[in-house]
Fold each of these.
Amino acid sequence: MQTEIIEKIAKKEGLVCLSLFDGISCGQQALSELGINIKSFYASEVDPYPKAIVAHRFPNTKDVGDVTKLKGSDFPEEVDILMGGSPCQGFSFAKGSKDPDFDDPRSKLFFEFARLVTELKPKIILLENVPMKSLSEEVITTTLGIDPVMINSALLSAQNRKRLYWFGIRQEDGTYQTIPVEQPDDLGLVMADILEDNYITDRDKSYCIDANYFKGGNLRQYFDKKRRQLVFESDSLCKQVGVADVNGWDILKRVYSKYGKGPSQTCNLGGNRITKVLISKVRDKSKTVRVGGRGSYDRHEWDSVDQLHWRKLTVLEVERLQTLPDNYTEFGVFRDAKDYDPTLHEHLQKKKISNTRRYKAVGNGWTVSVIKYLFGHLVAEAEQLIIDGHILEDREVA
Ligand SMILES: C[S@@+](CC[C@H](N)C(=O)[O-])C[C@H]1O[C@@H](n2cnc3c(N)ncnc32)[C@H](O)[C@@H]1O
């Protein structure tokens, strides 16, 4: 590996970082948790809410605004690390399409990242994005000249979140070399580790939390579409919603919601003993549900199934899924607001961020532990330089 940047880290010299599409600066959080010294952190972002959160968490961040207006030639310092995760909404998995997805104005922003790599010649580059169709992935790989690694955040958090990471180091000839990254060891984190109360889940790892999580979910979306993670009151996963018109003991007549766990199954169930599950809702307006058996109807409001026994994740829990510090997004400082007073201490001007904005910002963000794992490779190399005696630690010099 090219050693200039590694030496800088080993000597604890401050690095210059530029984070494009910075969002809530999960990359900066990861570097700070790794103890990497930062001389200057420049952030390009256009959304005022994540910008405000970053101004509160990392007040020294230098806001450089819209990436499309950023010129390498205007940049005041040599950049050590350039990182970014351009907006992903324009990428699709759709099969059959012959073209990559770069006509979409959001996907196209990747080329701003590539342009700044060429103009700024950073020593380290890190690009993150969603898994996409191979044609789009190839365009990115060919443009940057390095290969991506796919990491599922589930290994280092309680959330399933598969993402591609192009992580490279600049060579003397100006090209980039892929930094080899193994899959991290599974830390075994599960939803129960991040919940605030005694609600429970039917799965260990949360579905991926995206920027639309604030729109909320419902049972059908959750169980059928496998999205918008819900958690359940501890006794509601096995939910009886009706009584079947069959002969036998009461226990055999119980009908369970298909939107929940079945009761524990014993061997040799058959005939009337098979667990009965509510199949369909027959009249939308009256919310009457048919629970089966000789034309009988039982009235059960979907609302009672839908609302009483589940909840969506709290913002704090979603932050934990991204391995952010608790309440990372609670406050923001809006430096561009009309009532911002530069003469007043910023802590006096911090404002609460609404839950909707917080969910959105966190859903858009990176899993900090994954970014930390990636940059941790640089720290490990730096430590090796010290072990090998190439760099004297500060205390030895003193
Ligand atoms: C997927 S999010 C990145 C989140 C970020 N990695 C984090 O740690 O939170 C993409 C971000 O790009 C920002 N963005 C969109 N257009 C932009 C532009 N022209 N210049 C800078 N940022 C932009 C969006 O506002 C959004 O916050």
Amino acid sequence: MENANDSSGPARPDTMEIAYDELCGALAAQDLTGLWRRDGLGAQPTPRTRPHLWQWKTIAPLAKQAGTVVRVNERGDARRALQFCNPGLQMGTTESFFGAYQYLAPGETAPAHRHSPAAIRFVVQGKNVFTTVNGDACEMTPGDLILTPNWAWHDHTNYGSDPIIWFDAIDHPLVAQLESIFFQEHPDGMQEVIGHNVSERGFGAVGLQETSMSASVSSHSPLLRYPYSEVDRTLESLHAAAGGASVTVEYKNPITGGPAIATMTCEMTRVYPGVPTTPQRQAGGRMYVVFRGSGTSVIGGTEFAWSAGDVFVVPSWVPVEHNVSEQSDLFVVGNRAVLEALHLFRKAELDEQQKVTGVFAKD
Ligand SMILES: [Fe+2]
């Protein structure tokens, strides 16, 4: 006679289901999970970062309003910056960076602090302002790039009669993901100014470097200020020689040839009217600041119309192409420097222009 308690035979489906649920429960109780329950790796990136655009005509009045209701000079961690919050992310403008527009009124100072996230400033509007970086007061005029490398003391001073708005990019989301945020206020509020535009003196001409500068090789560029006048001249001469729909230069560390900031790739792309740029995609999200000009970009099939002062985002591996109605300068910050250091960077060109399937409108 067959034993009713014999369990050596194949399990019935309902028994297996109960056993599976019991196993999953037992794993969860021990802070474990089965890898078979996770989604598989995708064939290519599926970014949570969304293509998005913020318009200058919306931002500028809000920045001005913040200038009247938000104070900046009380605590070292306080900055009057309007952060661009990507609707696809809980934190960040892209997966790696926060972008922001910072507003400093005439006569104001933003006190000194330092932090492990690195940042850059790109001036959009205003002058007679300097950012002091480790004692070097770097003058800020439209189109200039100022570095505030990680753990460098920095404060801001508006000594003019007009407000200034500049674009901040900070690798805060990247460093936060690595759980490596450190921050310190300067004990004296503002740091002592040693000199003005000191870092530029050692790099006055192509291929020439003041000899004592060789001692200052570090993780970031010893050059802290990149004037727009030099970028403009370089782009113009490159395009005069080669032509094409666009030309791009990268801001480099003049000692090592690496990126100006280890975690950031900063570029300026000049786009010329006539024909659209070749559609391309690359790993890593990018933030674009329209410094001059106007035009459209097709990002993943959606058309974004932009003009000076607008900011837009191209997520990782989403194709992008530009078409301008006038000569336009796009300042771009991305994380290619990080991906290349980790041997993860990829890029590709598309064979044909993207088909436009929609036009961007804010929800
Ligand atoms: Fe800061």
Amino acid sequence: MKVAPEYDFFGWVYHSSIGDISGIRDDAPEEAKRAYEEFMRDDPKDEYAYLVPAGEGDKFEIVFNTDLLGEEKAAESIRHYLESTKKITAPDGTVIRYNFHPEGSSIGNALSHIMGHLMERTLVNRIYPDPDDFMRVITWKLGAVARVIYKEAKAELAEETGEALPSDLELRLGISECATINLSETLAEAMADYAANGEKANPLSIKMVETGNRKLEEYGG
Ligand SMILES: [Zn+2]
């Protein structure tokens, strides 16, 4: 989970073929570049909460970021989160700006988001039980398990609806803007969406959570 920047840089980002944000355009305004640098930094300081391994095996602790959710900053952080859950539409109904986090979610869903990351991390660790296995690190870093979950969920969705699905970018924007950063964030946001909206969540969110749960059962419950 990362805090949305004050400056909306999304108009200037490049997307990879699957929709991941892969860079920012050279002609972007300096503010957009700064916001992008700030936002894309892979640093737990940007997260409301994060996972740390706890002892042997599959155990993790969820640590809340006291810089963002401590006494001093909590009110501001919560306001920031809530402002980023609104979808802005034009009078003719077209979407001007997608919500950064799933519509209808609240700061409590920062925890559900982390549970999505925990689901992926647990699966990686069960597939590669040896903590010194290089593949475990690579699989986690690349979000390869989240990618498999996404692909399977998408295939099921296409089969059930019997219609051509929109592009990967559109599909993931249907969950949230944060869900387009990479597929690990898609899974985490799907979990937040599902926790906040239940059966009314985006169909892709529901499918991803179901697929992830099925995989957890496959790999040891
Ligand atoms: Zn995240």
Amino acid sequence: MDNAAAVPGNPPQANHHFADAARDAVYQAIFSRRDVRGQFLPDPIPDAVLARLLTAAHFAPSVGYMQPWSFVLIREAAVKARIHAAFAEANAEALQMFEGEKREIYRELKLEGILESPVNLLITCDRDRAGPVVIGRTHIKAMDIYSAVCAVQNLWLAARAEGLGVGWVSIFHQAALKEILGLPERIVPIAYLCLGQVSHFHDKPELEAAGWRPRLPLDELVYFEQWGETAGDGAAALKAALRAAQDTAAAHRRFDLAQS
Ligand SMILES: Cc1cc2nc3c(=O)[nH]c(=O)nc-3n(C[C@H](O)[C@H](O)[C@H](O)COP(=O)(O)O)c2cc1C
């Protein structure tokens, strides 16, 4: 990846920035992370690696420092089979919710790697972890859920750095997940993840490659001072920079290409 600090108008933030290679590695993980469904290898994940991933998740930010997450590891074939059956039931329902060409594309999509990946992981949110009144969560109760999602993303990026794929499977009835894995009432299933080594990472999101949706132009998603306001002080300059940064991200989404 380009040395970001060498780009004019992109000065390093005094003393607090990572060394160039470390900073580039962070962006590399972000740009080359993929949702993995079909490329899992059966090799086990060493405990030391799994421990690093779970620790990355545990160091996520959380409202009021609630740390509302827990982690249910699923490695036994019998449990995975029950989860897969729950997915298949929900997925058949989902197929019927799309029409025409979308339904045909949907039918061909692989949307999980439950059986092939060596480790499945449910990240949960305990809505009562820190008692009834939580600093920062006094007015917007869903902040605990958002916190748990931050843990998911930490793990996802750490896994990419470790060369491991992660796929998020969300096509379930929540009640089915809770029943199969024995979750108490107050525990919300946040992310059912499939983890493992992969044969390769795709260079684009699979839904983008399948023509489902393109990546949206970032410069059209940024407003100034008010929702919908696209002009403002410095708007044109920032939008040009956003387009350039999005192009750079796209060019570096594959680690192996970026290295060559
Ligand atoms: C909350 C959430 C739920 C998702 N659920 C599924 C899913 O059920 N099945 C699937 O194949 N991908 C799922 N994905 C992955 C998205 O399809 C994927 O992130 C998106 O297409 C962009 O691709 P990328 O992650 O490779 O960049 C989910 C992602 C998120 C963030």
